[in-house]
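Before relying on records like the one below, remember that each one covers exactly one chain. Contacts with other chains, cofactors or solvent are not represented anywhere in the record.
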Amino acid sequence: MVDPTDAIGKARQAVTERAELPGMSLMEHLEELRKRIVHSALYLGAGFIVAYLFHERLYGLVQAPLDRLKINLNYTHPMDPLNLYLQVALIGGVILASPFILYQVWLFIAPGLYQTEKRFVVPFMAATVGLFLAGASFGYFYVFPGALKILVLGFGKKFNPVMTIEDYTGFFLSIILGLGVSFELPILIFFLAMFGIVSPKFLWKNIRYAILVVFIVAAFICPSPDPWTMCIYAIPMLSLYLIGIGVAWWVHPSRRRKREAAA
């Protein structure tokens, strides 16, 4: 079980260690936050405009799993087709603008980092975008088509499917975005370890709970009740947790202090 006092103690230690870093007043923090939000919004707007120029191609990617099943989308409200184009353009814009938005996030937190930690900016951005795309691709090419086949051709084979734009896009985005975000686990561990909140020893000690959670999540997203298929979905997520342990070992403050002492 997690010891709350131990976690609080580590957090306090991390705060104490960073007390030597240049400080900013509350108003300076708010001004910096406002600046980064404005810049991020501008990048997002630019990404949305570019993505909307290709909205029909983006819609083709969303429609492709249904095309393979020879199912057409229907709509019940005159605004539904426009909303679909806007949604896919927005998601495409977020992906296009994500490196620039992530850089704004990094610029906001950089004043609270040591000089040796600031060198992680390029790996941080590359890993964040790459892991999200890997999770989204895993969902698009494997999880979502498998789920459609099981639900439509399996459980629904005796019925006539009437897919609406609203229901289909909600189902599509929940799987694609959900897996994309879940693949960011090593990035979350990266920050928790960097600030001394978790340690590689703690993560390894509680790996049995991580395995349990991973297989529970895999059971929900797996389109087939077959245990071997569920393992196929669980292995990537468990691998990300193990990668996160390696990341925690590399960036944890205790290891950084040892490297500095050796130098």
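The radius of gyration is 22 Å.
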